[in-house]
Design a protein that fits this description.
The chain has seven helices and 13 strands. The two termini are 15 Å apart. It has helices spanning 16-25, 39-42, 70-80, 90-98, 168-173, 235-247, 256-267; strands at residues 4-9, 29-34, 47-50, 84-88, 112-115, 118-119, 122-123, 127-136, 153-159, 163-166, 179-183, 204-208, 214-217. It is 24% helix and 24% strand. The longest helix has 13 residues, at 235-247. The chain has a single domain, classed as Class I glutamine amidotransferase (GATase) domain (Rossmann fold, 3-Layer(aba) Sandwich).
Length: 269
Amino acid sequence: MSPKLAVIQFPGSNCEYETRRAAAQYGFDAEIVRWTVDRETFDRFDAYILPGGFSYQDRVRAGVIASKLPVLQFLAEAAEKGKLILGICNGCQILAEAGLVPGLGGKAAISIALAHNARQNRPVGFICDWVNVKVQTPKASVFTRYFSENDIFPIPINHGEGRFVLSPEVEAVLPTLSTVVYCSAEGQIETEFPINPNGSQHNLAGMGSQKGNVFAIMPHPERAAFLKQVPESAGKWGRDKIEGLRTGSQKDGPWAPLFVSMADFLTKG
């Protein structure tokens, strides 16, 4: 039996259907549920994804209103039990505002912020583009354990508030966490634009929790789960796509391993 996954739809979500499609393709019985889900229904699921979008129109700041909803208390308790929780873009912002990543607890619970995109300390507004990233300390998280530190992956970003800002408490534990970082096509981590598109500290694009069962990522893995989604300009993956078009094959995209690892963890351990 396939593990059950809930894609939690908030007012303003706009990536729930493509997220469900990616999860269903790679091993889940995936369902979209609303933010008003009752506790009994919520508890039936083995894993949860908070999709991208603009919950509550990003009023006040992105993710903050959604982070105060009762369903986030459900998620906090699920995280404590070891259930898998993935936040993508707006979902990443919600998890940060709720203190579920990196999950330090106590006075350091809310210890990262997703600030407005900036370059040289000047705001740059919304960014919609393809970037390159790689994973650091991949074995520290269920979501990244199938990746290698040498892998370089294309992935799309679509956000106005995606700049990671860290507290000293997070800085202290950062080397132990699984992270996704912006890099060049050759894997170089350069802090300036365009390699770092939004000014994130340490080039951060995503971060896992200390327990490894929660992950928050600003780019969109569900939009690069299938090879057909990847632009032909994306290096090796673009060349693979052209070959796939020639042969008529439907190959997995660069971010399929994230969803596969989630499903495998729940079925195989």
